[in-house]
């Protein structure tokens, strides 16, 4: 799942990022995130089902937050039309929030089920906000 997400969103950002330098940085971050995912999967293959989020998920989401912020700031500073504005907002909200949740998710799981429930509810709310912005983007495109 992480590979598909990594490739899909990186292709999206490679298509919408305005500059060649930014695209080279995006490719480098993509390769770095791919390396982190492969290393974490290799080291935790036997216990992969017990890993709540881990460093690979955190690295992946932080790269999406970076791309999203870069795209939004570049569009504002250069007075460009902000295509995919709502999708970028969605990436900021969900990827930023869930990366912190999943980074600490393994530790929260050790607290027992009671410690994970509020965190999972926060993640569900973040995901619902993500879906709302995604639908708004699709609605905007369809009009």
Tell me briefly what this model is:
The chain is an all-alpha fold and 143 residues long.
List its salient traits:
mainly alpha; 0% strand; 5 helices; 143 residues
Question: Count of DSSP E strands?
Answer: 0
Give the termini separation: 31 Å
The number of helical elements comes to 5
Q: Which structural class matches the secondary elements?
A: mainly alpha
What proportion strand? Answer: under 5%
Low-confidence stretches: none
Mean pLDDT score = 77
| Secondary structure: helix percent | over 70%
N-to-C SSE series?
A: HHHHH
Spatial extent as radius of gyration: 16 Å
Principal-axis shape: globular
Largest sheet at a glance?
A: none
Folded structure, characterized:
The structure is a single chain. The protein has helices spanning 2-16, 20-43, 54-77, 85-109, 113-142. The two termini are 31 Å apart. The mean pLDDT is 77. The protein is globular. Helix 3 runs antiparallel to helix 4. It is mostly helical. It has 5 helices and no strands.
Secondary structure elements and pairings:
Elements: H1 2-16, H2 20-43, H3 54-77, H4 85-109, H5 113-142
Helix pairs in contact: 1-2, 1-3, 2-3, 3-4, 4-5
């Amino acid at each position: 799942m992480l590979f598909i997400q990594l490739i899909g969103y990186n292709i999206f950002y490679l298509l919408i990022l305005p500059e060649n330098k930014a695209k080279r940085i995006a490719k480098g971050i993509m390769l770095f995130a791919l390396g982190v995912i492969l290393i974490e999967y290799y080291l935790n293959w036997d216990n992969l089902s017990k890993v709540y989020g881990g460093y690979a998920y955190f690295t992946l989401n932080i790269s999406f937050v970076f791309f999203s912020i870069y795209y939004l700031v570049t569009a504002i500073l250069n007075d460009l039309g902000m295509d995919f504005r709502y999708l970028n907002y969605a990436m900021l909200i969900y990827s930023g929030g869930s990366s912190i949740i999943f980074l600490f998710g393994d530790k929260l799981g050790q607290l027992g089920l009671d410690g994970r429930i509020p965190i999972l509810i926060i993640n569900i709310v973040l995901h619902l906000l993500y879906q709302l912005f995604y639908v708004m983007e699709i609605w905007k495109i369809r009009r």
